[in-house]
Every structure is written in structure tokens, then in C-alpha cells.
Amino acid sequence: MxxxxxxxxxxxxxxxxxxxxxxxxxxxxxxxxxxxxxxxVAALWSSIFFYFLSWQFALSPYSITFNMWRETxxxxxxxxxxxxxxxxxxxxxxxxxxxxxxxxxxxxxxxxSKRNIVWNDNSTITFLNRNEWHFMPNMSSGSLSDIVTxxxxxxxxxxxxxxxxxxxxxxxxxxxKKEGSLIVSKSVxxxxxxxxxxxxxxxxxxxxxxxxxxxxxRFGWYYQRNMSSTFDGVITMYTGQKDIERxxxxxxxxxxxxxxxxxxxxxQVKSTIGNVLPLSTFKQPQFxxxxxxxxxxxxxxxxxxxxxxxxxxxxYRATESMFSNNETCYCPRQTxxxxxxxxISACKRAPLFVSLPHFLHADPSYLEAISGLEPNASKHSFxxxxxxxxxxxxxxxxxxxxxxxMEPIPNxxxxxxxxxxxxxxxxxxxxxxxxxxxxxxxxxxxxxSKWGGWCILLISGGVGAILLLLGIVLRCQDxxxxxxxxx
Length: 487
Known about the structure:
Largest sheet: 13 strands, antiparallel
Mean pLDDT: 85
Number of helices: 14
């Protein structure tokens, strides 16, 4: 029998070509899917990056910013410098000028945390600010037991409420002459946090005669404030969730949109308390901060570009305009004081005035009335540095001085023969600096903001371009082979 003939294997050429065509089409499609979005992302990178920042920096229960806002991560300190009145007997009623020397600084570590946090439906958050201070003896120049002499704040506060007493004037004057003193010498500890008792505060008759008698039994500049969550009041501000440019902007303070201390725009609750800011703040020529201690805002002006721990930023500084008194609505009295101090008597219910330390940038009349103060811009300036892109504070140096107005009070012999002088009581230097560890967390943002779009274009777009090119080349080869077979 003849052997069976083997037929050659027949290849399905049409199916093979269809498979190749699908692969080429897939390569081209994948290439386009990588290349086109990469081009779009690169073209819109600025907007995409800003959206990313907005998502990260807006306050929400799950954002990184929220945890850093709730418990301030920066090491903060408060330097307190007290003014010691060296010649009270010779200058209280003349003929000498009051002379002062500085005592301190007394340094306290400072920590802020938020309490009673409530998320509101209108993209705002309501909270209390808890302040905590601890004395740092190794960083201080002096002890809390140091004795400081100055004008008696209690006497001047109560005296400022003795106007228009009518027939009671003589009786009240006699109480002041019997139990009051215009000069007081107390320890640093009592003057700042512990408070000191004064006979005038304990007098039942005086409490009965004087309207709006203080509701405290001791006086200290920070008495009952350490560890308190209520002293700064109830604050409500925007979270930035719907509009990042409203991040941190206040909507109310103690549930009111006005402080009630000043008329018009000066009395409005506005701006931010400074722990979080709208992202574009660093681009502005100036920005304002709301301070609950003065029941109003102060403005810082652009000064220069800076860099800290390789983070670029912008520095803003207090200038002559901050307490210029050109804004007459900041003058609750009939006449404004000379430029350089802000009348906060309506805010503190006491004849107090705030200025820059040593009356820096103030009218010369303040320094001419006393001796011992020497303003120095390098030591007494108030400035803040904000990071580019995020407006995160890099350096904060809040330097403010509290002054007590000494003046005669009509029909009160206890306050007679007093010169009208703004007596410096103390000044603060509250400061915080961004640490290298926290700066390291921010470092990737800057190259990412500049080169992120190009990186995506090079990587994703490069892969897409290669796939697309490979598909086109294979398609061209297939076309060339087809032409050769036809020939």
C-alpha cells in the first residue's frame, strides 16, 4: 500500500493579521491614553497643584492641617520685660521725669490648643483657645521673686471710673486717700500670673459706690489666664473647605460680628488670629491680624523676601502706620492720642494703651515725658515671615508694649497734681520659629509645584509617546509588507 501523503499545514493568515492589527491598535490607543492626559495635566498643573494644596490645607476632621492647628506643633515662647520705676517719690508729683529700667526678660514656654471644637454647616468652625505657660528659669534673666515698682494699676483702673459721681465724690475720695496707693512694689510672679490683692478691691463701700466695679479680687496682667480655655472668648472662623481663600477668616467673636469697643469698621470682627491664613496671603502687600487682647486688628506691611531652612518666604513688619491713629474710629475718647499708641481702654475697661516696645515708631512726645527707654528696631520690631505657596508662618515675633495712662481726675484730691503721662508697664516678645523637622515636611511642595507637571509629562507622556510611536512603526511596516506582496 502506498504511504499516506501528508498535506502541508495551512495557516489562517486572515486571523493572524487581525490579531496583529488589534495589537497595533492597542499600542496606539494606550499611547494616546498616556500622552494626551499628560499634556493636559502639564498645561493645567498650576490649577491642579492649587487644588491639591486647598484639599490638604483646608480644615477638616481628617486633614493634616487640622491636627497641627488643634495642637500647635511649634515650640513657642513668651518673653516678659517689666519696667521698674526707679524714682517714684521724685517724679509722681514732679519735678523729675519718671525714670525706668528694664527687668527681665522672664521667659515662659507657651502652648496653644483648641477646645470645645464644633463643626458648623456653613463651612465654619467654633472653638475655644487654651493658653498654657511655664516659667523657664534657665532662659530667663532674673527670678519670679524679683521686686518691681511701678504705678498702681488697680488705683488707676478704679480712679478712671470716678467721673460723674456727683455727691459721692468726696466719700469715694476719702476711701482712696485712706486705703489707696499710687505706687506699688510687687514680685514678678504676682504682677504676671498670681495677681496681688489690693485694699481698694476689698473695700465694700467702694464696690457699692462705683459703677461697673471690677469682678476680680486680685490683679495681675495674666491673672486667671494660664491654663484657661475661656479667656480669649468663643471664636468662629472659616475652615476653607468651600473657599480656601477664606481659611482662618473670622466670622464672629463671642457670637458677635462687632466687638462693641469701637464704632464703624474699627469695631468689626474680621481678618484672622494668625494660626492659619488664606493661601495667597504671602502675595499681598500687607495683611491684618485680629488680636483679642486689643479687640481689633493691626496691619503688617511687606518688607522683604526671606528664607528659613530652605523654605522661601516673605517678611512683613509693623511700620509707623500700625498705630498711626489716622483711623479716628480707634479713638473712643473725644481726642486721639498722638500717633504710636492705640487706645484699648474700651476693650480692657481700664486706661490702657498699646504700642510697640519702647514707643518704637511713636510720636516723640511719649519718650520726652519719661526717661530710660531707647527704641531699637532690631530689638523692638514686630514682624512675621510667611512661606511661599502656603502662607505658613516661618517666624513670628509679636512685640507689643502695654502702657497705663496716669492723669489727674476731676474733684479727686487723691489724683490731684498728677501729670498726664503714658507710663510703660511691660512689653512682650512672643515668638515661634519653624523647626527643621517641620520644614522638611514642606520641602517637597516647592519642587513639586514647579516641576510636577513636567515630570508627569516626561514619564507618562514619554511612555505614551513610545507606545504610540511603536504602534505607528509596526503599522507602517505592515503596510510596507503588504505592498511588497502585491508587487
